[in-house]
Amino acid sequence: MITVKMLKPYYIKANAEYVRVVLAYQYFSVVINDDTYQFIPIEAKEIRVNRSNKKIENIEARFAFQKGKKIIYMSMTELISLPDFIFQLHTIAKPYFKEEKEAEHNENEELINELELINLKRLIDKALDKRDYKLLKELVKYLPKKDET
User: Fold this and answer.
1) What are φ and ψ of residue 58, in 5° steps?
2) How many CB atoms lie within 10 A of CB 4?
3) Domain ranges (residues) in the chain
4) Sign of the dihedral through C-alpha 86, 88, 93, 98
5) In the prediction, which pLDDT does 111 show?
6) Cα distance between residue 127 and residue 36, in whole Å
7) CA distances from 127 to 36, 37, 132 (A)
8) Considering the entire predicted model, what is its pTM?
9) Which residues of 57-92 are buried (b: 16+ CB within 10 A; e: fewer)?
């Protein structure tokens, strides 16, 4: 059984597209069959995550781990299959992710609320024109209170 014992970045470098989690000795270790293997930077040295879609981009990377004189290699696809690896990596990279969808969602919500209010006012005007006081009374209930706007 393979688990991630520790995953800490040596440093993090972010640009417009990617978050690069750079690894070094003593910052990344895995436990394989009760033996702890330390990361050694002889092949891949970083994990590159897309800031927009949060996907790991360098899935072809191969990482080396050492215990004594024994060196084992793990591909990024093997590491991705470990839930604790994904959880720890997401925790590290999360502050660097773009949250455009949330801002876009808020803007859309505002627009929808504004359109609903305009539509409600139009329906109230129609009810007034027809002198339908029962409908008018019902529609006025849906108007936002003064402190809500």
Assistant:
1) -95, 60
2) 18
3) 2-96, 100-148
4) positive
5) 84
6) 75
7) 75, 75, 5
8) 0.63
9) beeebebbbeeeeeeeebebeebeebeebeebbeeb
